[in-house]
Amino acid sequence: MEHVRNNYKAAEEGEEQEERKEDKPSSLIEKIQQLGQTNVPQLSQDSRIHCLTIIGQIEGHLQLPPQNKTTKYEHVIPQIVAIEQNPKIEGLLIILNTVGGDVEAGLAIAEMLASLSKPTVSIVLGGGHSIGVPIAVSADYAFIAETATMTIHPIRLNGLVIGVPQPFEYLDKMQERVIKFVTKHSKIPEEKFKELMFEKGNLTRDIGTNVIGHEAVEYGLIDEVGGIGEAMKKLNELIEMNKQKNEGFIQ
């Protein structure tokens, strides 16, 4: 009888272990579905650097169709707060491959990244278009891949436009916010950025400019052409400099 009880207990323990094994993949899948990545800031224990990805279209107040690849700003903002609060995270790597998206949401993300007290490095891979430009320059140091592109154009308005001056004044002020932010966090002069933004003939049937890798650096929009290796090296340098600065301040 004792032997039967032991076998029954062992079977129960085996079932519990199997359930725990099943829970682990399901929680991993949930993280991927909700945040688009497997490691959230609170659980990042094996590295002092956290990676934040801005991919697809930046989703703001309106939900995009399910087939669209999106970055949801309501998921990104809590991550940025967690990164700032987590003492184990010493630096942030921001990887962009975005077509742009909601202007207010993108600018909100950029402003939060710019206000982080920890070192940040961004890298544009593929594309950092439209409102992705302010996010790219919000980091302490910005890289762009040699073949990556960035599209600079005026703010567009989709949907109903009321025939009174106020909506246009609002758009103008919003556009001015974007221009001021980009020129403040990069080396590009305001006149040059506006020139690229309102360029005619560069984009087919549209106003704006498409800049590639080295051109973005030449204009002063991005700091350096490079890949993930260069970005990681620079971020580690900034982390060490930040440590020395804090130690000197404490002493």
Give a structural overview.
- With 251 residues, the protein is α/β, with parallel strands linked by helices.
- The chain folds into two domains: 1-35; 38-250, 2-enoyl-CoA Hydratase, Chain A, domain 1.
- 49% of the residues lie in helices and 22% in strands.
- The chain has eight helices and ten strands.
- The strands form three sheets. The protein has a six-stranded parallel sheet with strand order 2-1-3-4-5-10, with helices on both faces.
- Strand 7 and strand 8 (206-207) form a beta hairpin.
- Helix 2 (73-85) packs parallel to helix 3.
- The mean pLDDT is 81.
Radius of gyration: 23 Å
In whole angstroms, how far apart are the ends?
70 Å
The SSE string, one letter per element, is HEEHEHEHEEHHEEEHEH
% residues in beta strands: 15-25%
The CATH homologous superfamily of the largest domain:
2-enoyl-CoA Hydratase, Chain A, domain 1
The main pleated sheet reads as: 6 strands, parallel
CATH topology of the largest domain: 2-enoyl-CoA Hydratase, Chain A, domain 1
Overall strand count: 10
Query: Which CATH first-tier class of the largest domain would you pick?
Result: Alpha Beta
The outline comes out as globular
Helix content: 40-55%
Arithmetic mean pLDDT: 81
Ranges where pLDDT stays below 50 over 5 or more residues in a row are none
Strand order of the largest sheet: 2-1-3-4-5-10
Secondary-structure arrangement, i.e. CATH architecture of the largest domain: Alpha-Beta Complex
Please tally the helical runs, counting DSSP H or I stretches of 4 or more residues. 8
